[in-house]
Amino acid sequence: MAWHKVRNEYSKLTLLGVTLLILTGLGSVFYYTYHSLRRDMNLITAKQKNVFDVFYQRAKILEVENMVRYADLHLGQDIPAPVNGLDTDYLYGFDLKTQQRFADIPLQYPAANLLNTFRYALSYPEVNNIYTLWNDHRLIGMVADNNVLPAKLASFEMDLMAQPAWYHYFGCADFAPSRTFCSADEAFVSDIEIDSFSMRNTIVMYFPFIHQSGLGSYKYGLLGINISVDEAFRDVLLPFTNINPTRTAVSFNVAEPCRPFHLCLKKSLMRTKAGTDLYLKWSYSWLDFIKLTLHSAAFEIYLIALLLLMVTWKQLYLRLRTLAHTDHLTRLPRRDILNQRLLHEHDYLMILDIDNFKSINDLHGHSIGDAALTAFARYLKGNIRKIDTAIRWGGEEFIVLFRGMGNDDMMSQSAKRLLTRPLQIPELPDPITFSAGVIRIRDYLTVTEAVHMADELLYHVKQHGKHNIACYEGTTIRLIRPLPDEAESA
Question: Which of the residues 58, 363, 389, 458 has the least number of beta carbons within 10 Å of its own beta carbon?
Fold first, then answer.
């Protein structure tokens, strides 16, 4: 009973250890996946070009007066529509006071060559609109498709000073007399907003300009370049080919909170010409993060390592279990292994006891007694079959379980072979003999009952001269090697 309790406790500890090992491994995989995401974010953002630098360079070569010149040249003229299938750009104009469109002009050549620098900037896929905003409340710009232009610019503020970029450069009292911009910023970058024309998330870069119109008069305004967020930051918003973040965004607000049950990462993506930082933000829901982890190389390595560990652990466990159940002196299994299942896998049980073992210890010493036990264990293993099992039961007692014995006669023959083969070792002058009792294993017998019955037969042999094996023949006890007086009467 005590052994079963220990075994159950050991099984629980083993299960707990395996569970902790699996959970620790999974935790390591999740931790590695998280840091892999951070590393990937660093690598991907390092490759992202700074669109603000790119379009700052483009804006420096754009001459805003060319837009006005081309519009004045073609206003009121009947310009034919472009041939279907041919790409062209359109110059458009809005009156901000009436919010009505006053121009929608396809570019015609050779006059349109003066707008080639605008066409070049508009050819970038991330640019969906380039326009100029004038102090006379005109908005003149270029688009690649005039179908995006509304008939009325309802969403645009008529009060120019209400526009942050306009106020940034022209809102101070000194601007009118000095013609010096209120800010030395090279560009003003808007927040991310929905563009009125394309209805896409857009960042607008504004550049101030002053246009001399002759006779000391001048006009001034802003050059705006609409940058589509989805196009300009495609590589960082859709960074992977398989499982992308649940939510991606670029934002000027670094303190945007993380949603509940989400894993959030953020990193400064680039710096604008106005000196502010644009941040990249990735957010994974717990489900998407688990999916990403399960598809990662780290998880594959974890599974391989876990499989190898399980195979190694099984072999190690079996080895340790064998060592734990093996007698260190005789190298035979200990009595712990004999349970109900093992008992009923065999047909006969024999318990053996070395004769006069106490005398061997007393006369020759315990070292010779140990040599006798070791030699007897080898003797047993050498004289039984591989399918049989020899066990050191304790002290000088041993048990042998026999399998595949069809009847008592077969068992008697095997027992006689054990008796007729003497065991002699150099350390002792006389052969080592043994006494034994053997019983047939019945289905109803427990281990305790079977051993007790065999032990009674062993005791019978000890009372009748030793060096013999007793068994039941019906209800009577029979000795495998007959006594001398029985042999004479026979």
Answer: 363
